[in-house]
Amino acid sequence: MTTSTDALPRKRVHLAAHFPGVNNTTVWADPRSGSQIDFASFVHLARTAERGRFDFFFLAEGLRLRELKGRIHDLDVVGRPESLTVLAALAAVTGRLGLAGTVNATFNEPYELARRLATLDHLSEGRAAWNVVTSSDAFTGENFRRGGYLDRADRYTRAAEFVRVSRELWDSWAPGDLVADQESGHFVRHGDVGAVRHDGPHFTVEGHFNVPRAPQGHPVIIQAGDSDEGREFAASTADVIFSRHGTLEEGRAFYTDVKRRLSRYGRERHELKIMPAATFALGDTDEEAAEHAAEIRRLQVSPQTAIAFLEQIWGRDMSAYDPDGPLPDVEPEQEGGVSQGRVQVADRAAVAAKWRAVAEEKNLTIRQLVIEMTGRQSFVGSPATVARRIDEFVQADAADGFILVPHLTPGGLDDFVDRVVPLLQERGVFRADYEGTTLRDHLGLAVPRSLPEAAPAATSGDAPRLVPEAVPTAVRAAVPAAVPEGES
């Protein structure tokens, strides 16, 4: 006897919003495209995500301007503000949305970053997340240290120790409350502050952490690595994986592999959320959406961008070739390259052979080939089609949800929130309103095991505050109020 999947409990869909980055995802030629530096752009996208009851807002990070053939790559680099600074500002203009920032564990130190993340968790009243990334890129490393880079074999061991030290610092404050002395107006800590003594291969830390225990205890940890060592690091350490597997089959294979690793670390399947990056194109009909998606891809891959992609694969200057002409009959360089600051292609000969076979089979020009091979919208269709497909992925254990990457800054998420989210809510797989106050509440994650159980979540509009009501008026007046809705 078989059981219909309709009779099984339906998994909840998790959604997050990625602010479009400095690459060819964003269609800058569209007249609706705005600044990615102006704070108003961050506010617009974040508030749209919060209006859609998304779990979190996600910022990537670039630590050096990318170069092509020794020059700044002006096709996709226009600057990137520092993530945690932007998120701290967004904490004042949002109330429930999680705030996730990418910060490199190779080029930072645990004590300072643990302070910044704990501070963000306090400012946002429990909504902070850290996307832990690593780098063995000497080009980027030149901005940070003599010798430029950390050996590839050491990057995850350093990251694992980095997270471990950060958690030791966050846990060094015993549970307690900040209360105000009425006479002096100073805060008094009710609870012990323990000393941290860590001596490991990468870090030696000894002293007392100077930020009280944050509302979540530990900010949510996100990880984006896809290698075997990256998957193992995520299974042992992360709360969320930001993956890149876009098809149902690839997603299910990745989901199964990572979830099975959790038991090695005494973890349950629900303790790690897998959320691939996803793009989308909507239309009133599936046919209209397909036409829209094709136009987006054409705009994302300009003639110059097509040649740049080809140069990255072939590892040589290809500027003499016509992007609207055939693929040239030249072999890729095996060593070196013309781009800096990008992930290098591991086996250029194999990738070039695959691209050549597709070009010959479909009779594609260079630009058409790049459009074909560099990805397409993950979800294309009417709002009903896109809602159904997202639900199918989650119910089939190909993902726990998606981190949506719109192609427009900052209004690219508006249609999705207005037209797709209500259909997911009607299907009973997406929240109608926030049910808690912290990002851990949104993701269904327990407080870290080193912490006591959290008090019941406050009702909407009555979140717990770092500054208690007993604080004298003169002290409370120094704490800025949240900016009213509609202002920036």
TrEMBL record:
Molecular function GO terms recorded: monooxygenase activity
Annotated Luciferase-like domain residues: 30-396
Any single Pfam family the record assigns to this protein: Bac_luciferase
Keyword flag Repeat: no
EC number: 1.14.-.-
Domain of life: Bacteria
Keywords annotated in UniProt: Flavoprotein, FMN, Monooxygenase, Oxidoreductase
Family of the protein in this entry: Belongs to the NtaA/SnaA/DszA monooxygenase family.
Protein name: NtaA/DmoA family FMN-dependent monooxygenase
Source organism (scientific name): Microtetraspora glauca
